[in-house]
Write a structure and sequence with these properties.
The complex is a heterodimer of chains A (104) and B (689).
Chain A lengths: L2 H7 L4 H28 L2 H18 L2 H15 L7 H16 L3
Helix pairs in contact in A: 1-2, 2-3, 2-5, 3-4, 4-5
Chain B lengths: L1 H43 L3 E5 L5 E4 L1 H7 L3 H6 L8 H16 L4 E7 L7 E12 L2 E10 L1 H50 L5 H31 L8 E3 L1 H16 L4 E7 L7 E3 L1 H18 L3 E12 L3 E10 L21 H7 L5 H11 L3 E7 L3 E11 L18 E5 L3 H13 L3 E5 L5 H10 L6 E5 L7 H8 L8 E6 L6 H7 L3 E4 L4 H13 L19 H10 L2 E5 L3 H13 L3 E5 L2 H10 L6 E5 L7 H10 L7 E5 L4 H9 L4 E4 L4 H17 L1
Parallel strand pairs in B: 7-9, 13-14, 13-15, 15-16, 16-17, 18-19, 18-20, 20-21, 21-22
Antiparallel strand pairs in B: 1-2, 1-5, 3-4, 4-5, 6-8, 9-10, 10-12, 11-12
Classes of the chains: A mainly alpha (104), B alpha/beta (689).
Chain lengths: 104, 689
């Protein structure tokens, strides 16, 4: 992840962008948990809302992969295909982990 | 005698009897022949034939009838025809048959017969009552129509498949529109930002090329999508209020950079009877004008491009607006005039190589104009130029803009106009006269100073001058120079220029008080003059003295406005909140955040004068963007522009936003350019206009 470039894309300083990423990890972590809980409870609506939030925030930050993974989950939940979103969810969790570790 | 007479009598009787027998025999032959003929016809025709008496029993069936049903003669006479209808329809058809018989009506229907699954056959049954002394009998025919039904079925299936295909195509295109536009906007937007990062000349040049190519590609994609939408019958029109004058000025501003440094005067002439508001689809209306006006600079090297907006006809509820766009360009040969409006056509093949374009633009314009109840057409003379006409039928609106009253400070003031271009002078004269000003108009710059001096000497000094910078005999700077020290009380001076705003500093140094880009926008000019002459209590200081007022330009007005613009952002996601706050803050705007719709309504209602614009996320907990917007409008906050931020650019979403009282929308992911465009559109331009 090229913070400098992503920040510049948004017309922001690197520091400002890092702050945004921290905020995203913080709020996005909660949303990922909501997806996990939603899958366990079979609550498609909750999954959809949480995935939508992640999709939007990640998209705004230029985190294309994260946004794409969230988009898949949102679409699956919308069509009530809860059984088919585990792969995208794993991908999303992995990406979030990488970002939070700073290894992305 | 008696015997003789008896014999004679007998012979007579025998004779009579013979005659009678002969008659009967002939009648019998005739009947037999007739029967034979009927039988022959009945047995050879392709139809099944049947006869039913008034008690409902079948009296006669022909062989074809028995063949169609696959039964014997005896069977055919002992069971009614409707007993042979396919089981699932039998009851319903029998009921309809009985009903017809009861009312002595004709019966005509397609029926399925046969009970073998998958081997359904169809017959058409037609029967009419025949009235006689014996009561009403029914005679009918039976036609096998399985083949025809089968074809109909096939046709229906094919039609459905085609429709499904077409729907799928439209849907695909609609999806593609979003999928293609999003990355394109990314390319263009980021190229813009790249340009601001201090590139060297070569890099900037390359980046400009990327941007131009991106924009060209986006235009092309939009054209193709529009064309597909029209083809698919999916083009929809809105009916909302808009200001046609403002729209035309906006398009002029958009097109002006395309003229570049060519010696072309862009003239914008709005007739006085054009209403300040009409109802229609401003986007589509604008699209046609943008397209027609955008073409003109491509084909014109010098002279003028003139937009004229007039009213052709009015009815109680509607009016025909007529726009003409005339240029002094290369023109179009007579035999190609019609073809330019056809899809994929340009006046000649070399045109597309030299001037570019898809060849779809004008075809789309024509279709759009037709859909708005108008038309487009062109007149031209090779080498002289072209005139493109666009008419559209728009509705009158109940909503009324506050009438544009010119500031009282202008009334009775003397204004001098110096411009070499007759068209521009005429338009300015009319605008100024409408503001109750006394106008002196000069062709060129040479006579400005003498005229001013003379006016002052006669005790009727000119209060304000509008001076074109690009006059051939004596340009605006030279005019300003010639005025230096020539007058005790110099008038205010506003520079008019077709060039872009970088001239502002030079204007200020030359002693101008204001700057207006051409074509001059009436509201902006009136506002600027009002401000200058309003402060007129303090007489203008002669140039050279140190007291320099700030130059009034659209640019400075805009920058000053920017810092006083305050935006309310309704967004629940902390990441997006922070990003938008940073983005807007860096650009010099004030931002206040509301975390959901309810808070947005509360914050705005508490201090409506504080905010100039609301950005509203559509999906929020507690109260979503649509509900919040509806609430704000209900509370009477009709003026504040509300721009939706939506993840979905599909038309449904957009219409929902507009229906909820929002003014516009931007799509996520949020792009700086889009956001700033909205602010410019709804706050900066609105205040400056």
């Amino acid at each position: 992840m090229n913070i400098k470039e992503l920040a510049a894309n948004l017309g922001l300083e690197e520091e400002e962008y890092r702050e945004l990423i921290d905020l995203f990890i913080l709020s996005g972590g909660g949303d990922v948990q909501k997806i996990v809980d939603g899958v366990a409870a079979g609550d498609a609506d909750q999954i959809m809302r949480a995935a939508h939030t992640i999709k939007g925030a990640a998209g705004n930050l230029g985190l294309v992969d994260v946004s794409a993974a969230a988009k898949i989950i949102e679409a699956r939940a919308m069509h009530n295909q809860l059984g088919e979103l585990s792969e995208a969810l794993r991908m999303l969790q992995g990406l979030m982990q990488q970002i939070s570790d700073g290894t992305a | 005698m008696t015997e003789k007479s008896t014999i004679l009598e007998l012979v007579k009787r025998v004779k009579a009897l013979e005659t009678e027998q002969e008659k009967t025999r002939r009648a019998q032959i005739a009947l037999k022949e007739s029967e034979e003929r009927f039988r022959l016809i009945s047995e050879t025709i392709h139809f099944g034939v049947f006869e039913i008496d008034d008690t409902g029993s079948c009296l006669y069936t022909n062989t074809r009838y028995q063949e169609i049903f696959g039964i014997s003669l005896v069977q055919s006479l002992t069971m009614p025809w409707h007993a042979l209808v396919a089981a699932e329809d039998r009851e319903a058809i029998a009921a309809r048959w009985q009903a017809a018989v009861k009312e002595l009506k004709s019966f005509s229907e397609d029926c399925r017969i046969g009970d073998t699954p998958g081997q359904c056959r169809w017959v058409h049954v037609h029967a009419s009552p025949v009235f006689s002394d014996a009561g009403a009998r029914y005679t009918g025919t039976l036609e096998e129509i399985t083949g025809r039904k089968h074809n109909e079925e096939e046709l229906k299936k094919a039609k459905e498949a085609a429709e499904t295909g077409s729907r799928a195509k439209s849907q695909f295109l609609a999806n593609m529109s979003h999928e293609i536009r999003t990355p394109m906007n990314g390319i263009i937007g980021f190229t813009d930002m790249l340009l601001e990062t201090g590139l060297d000349e070569t890099q900037a040049d390359y980046t400009q090329t990327i941007k131009r190519s991106g924009e060209a590609l986006l235009l092309l994609i939009n054209d193709i999508l529009d064309f597909s939408k029209i083809e698919a019958g999916e083009m929809e029109f809105e009916a909302i209020d808009f200001d046609p004058e403002l729209l035309v000025y906006d398009v002029c501003e958009l097109v002006r950079p395309k003229i570049g440094t060519k010696p072309i005067e862009l003239v914008c002439n709005i007739d006085d009877d054009v209403p300040p508001l009409v109802k229609g689809d401003p986007l589509r209306y604008r699209q046609v004008i943008t397209n027609l006006l955008g073409n003109a600079p491509k084909f014109t090297e010098q002279g003028e491009i003139c937009v004229h907006l007039s009213v052709d006809a009015q009815t109680e509820h509607g009016l025909h607006l007529h726009t003409t766009i005339s240029d002094t360009g290369i023109g179009i040969p007579q035999d190609k005039l019609g073809a330019v409006f056809e899809a994929f056509q340009q006046a000649d093949n070399s045109t597309s190589r030299k001037y570019g374009g898809t060849g779809l633009g004008l075809s789309i314009c024509k279709t759009l104009a037709n859909m708005m109840g108008g038309d487009t057409w062109a007149e031209s003379q090779v080498g002289q130029g072209s005139v493109f006409h666009f008419t559209a039928c728009l509705q009158k609106t109940e909503a009324q803009l506050p009438a544009r009253v010119a500031p009282a400070s202008l009334s009775g003031k003397r204004v001098l106009v110096a411009d070499d271009h007759g068209g521009t002078r005429k338009i300015l004269e009319r605008m100024l006269a409408a503001a109750q000003m006394q106008v002196v108009s000069l062709e060129g710059g040479r006579r400005v100073a003498p005229t001013l001096i003379q006016a002052q000497a006669q005790g009727a000094p000119i209060d304000i001058c509008l001076i074109d910078l690009g006059m051939p005999d004596m340009n605006g700077y030279q005019v300003a120079e010639s005025l230096r020290g020539a007058l005790e009380q110099p008038p205010y001076m506003i520079a008019l220029s077709s060039a872009l705003e970088r001239d502002a500093a030079k204007c200020e140094a030359a002693g101008f008080d204001g700057f207006q880009a051409k074509p001059v926008r009436r509201p902006r000019l009136v506002q600027m003059m009002g401000r200058l002459l309003g402060e007129g209590a303090k007489a203008k200081q002669a140039p050279g003295e140190d007291l320099r007022r700030k130059m009034h330009t659209q640019y400075t007005v805009r920058e000053a406005l920017k810092h006083s613009v305050s935006i309310l952002l309704a967004e629940d996601n902390p990441v997006n909140q922070k990003l938008a706050t940073l983005m807007l803050g860096k650009a010099g705007y004030q931002v206040e955040v509301a975390v959901n719709g309810r808070e947005a309504v509360e914050k705005y209602s508490a201090a409506p004068e504080k905010y100039d614009l609301i950005f509203m996320d559509v999906q929020m907990p507690e109260m979503d963007g649509q509900e919040a917007s509806r609430k704000l409008r209900e509370l009477g906050h009709a003026q504040v522009p509300i721009v939706a931020m939506t993840a979905n650019a599909m038309k449904g979403d957009r219409e929902m936003c507009l229906a909820a009282g929002m003014d516009d929308y931007v799509t996520k992911p949020i792009k700086r350019e889009q956001v700033f465009e909205m602010i410019a559109k709804y706050v900066l331009n609105r205040s400056a206009a």
